[in-house]
Amino acid sequence: MGATIHIVGGGAIGSLLAAGAQRHGVSHCRYPRDVNAAPVKATWIDGSEFNLSPPNKTPNILNKDDVLVLPLKVYQLHDALQAWQPFLKRRATVVLLHNGMGGYEIARNVLPEDYPLLLATTSHGAIKYYDSVGISTVRYTGRGITKVGSPTNAITNAKQLKEAVALLERVLPPVEYQQDIWQALWLKLAVNAVINPITALYDIQNKQIAQPQFDELREAICHEFTLVANVSGQNFCSAHIQQEVLKVAKATGENYSSMHQDVVHGRTTEIEAINGYIVQMAKKKGIHVPVNTLLVERIKALSS
Ligand code: KPL
Fold first, then answer.
1. In terms of DSSP H, where are the helices of the chain?
2. N or C end of the chain, less CB within 10 A?
3. pLDDT given for residue 57 in this prediction
4. Integer Cα distance of 179 and 47 in angstroms
5. Which of 142, 118, 116 is nearest to 45 (CA)?
6. Could you tell me the sign of the dihedral formed by the alpha carbons of 284, 287, 288, 291, in that order?
7. Which residue of 198, 252, 261, 267 sits with most ligand 1 atoms within 8 Å of its CB, as the best mutation to test the pocket?
8. CATH number of 5-179
């Protein structure tokens, strides 16, 4: 039997991965926190609908060629990795897939230093909703791309990691291997640092952050972001970052960002891992980032 992809959590992206695995005939297991609330049906990007195989409850020890994907929020990662550790004795590849930063540091605290680990970011769009007869459904709303890479590029686990990337590609293409995954992650951080808090604070769709009333705010977030990213080893230009942010805002224009949705539904937001990460890194490097600092405070005030 071939490798199995194990998907932790029942969020939109995790459920999309499970649907992709099923559609493409890849052996898979999914472990939503609440099996009763997990999607039972998928609507694919071409409009076709299919029922999802039932979720799994208890995992067995994963094989070395299996892949464990954690499409979770950063603040859920520590507990999830700890809970999964006993099942990772054969060193199955672990893939972190989340908004914001800080997941790698968490994984490094829980897993051994040379553990086969990949970091990923995706621009595929998916939403979870209840259909007209109340069935929990995941809908694939926008074809994007998943970028994945090794945080250290160490050659120790190179073959295993290459096979894990190939498995991810079979599940939900396209997947692009990145020699420098950190650049892709920093760029996604910029996108989330602008779109997510603005949409949440002003109760707007992603496309509306391009309105002139937000010009100054967008520019200031990107300027501070660029200062922090560049002292952390990146080489970005603030104007280019702004263009990238606007491109994503347009491409996902009709969406409400994940932070908007978290605020609306009274859930914990990812502000600490997004703008909070910029503030934390700025502090370490002695950089003044008043705009990101204020955004963190304002989102926290909204969501508590
Ligand atoms: O990642 C996103 C999010 O909402 O968290 C964006 C790219 C802003 C799409 O909505």
1. 12-23, 74-84, 103-110, 158-171, 181-202, 215-231, 238-251, 258-264, 275-285, 290-303
2. N
3. 82
4. 35
5. 142
6. negative
7. 252
8. 3.40.50.720
- Domain span(s) for CATH 3.40.50.720 in the chain: 5-179
At 277, give phi and psi (nearest 5°): -65, -40
pLDDT value of position 303: 79
Neighbours of 49 (CB within 10 A): 11
- Which of the residues in the chain have pLDDT under 50? none
Residues labelled catalytic: 188
Superfamily of domain 182-303 in CATH is N-(1-d-carboxylethyl)-l-norvaline Dehydrogenase; domain 2 (1.10.1040.10)
Residue of 141, 204, 205, 206 with the most ligand 1 atoms within 8 Å of its CB, for mutation: 206
Residues shown for the chain: 304
How far is 99 from 107, CA to CA, in rounded Å? 15
**How far is residue 52's CA from residue 39's CA, in Å, rounded to a whole number?**
8
Atom of ligand 1 nearest to the CA of 196: 8
pLDDT at 1: 66
pLDDT of residue 153: 87
Return the pLDDT at 154: 82
Q: How far is the CA of 115 from the centre of ligand 1 (A)?
A: 29
Which residues line the pocket of ligand 1, CB cutoff 6 A?
Answer: 99, 191-192, 195-196, 206, 248, 252, 255, 257-258
CA separation for the pair 94, 106 (Å, rounded): 13
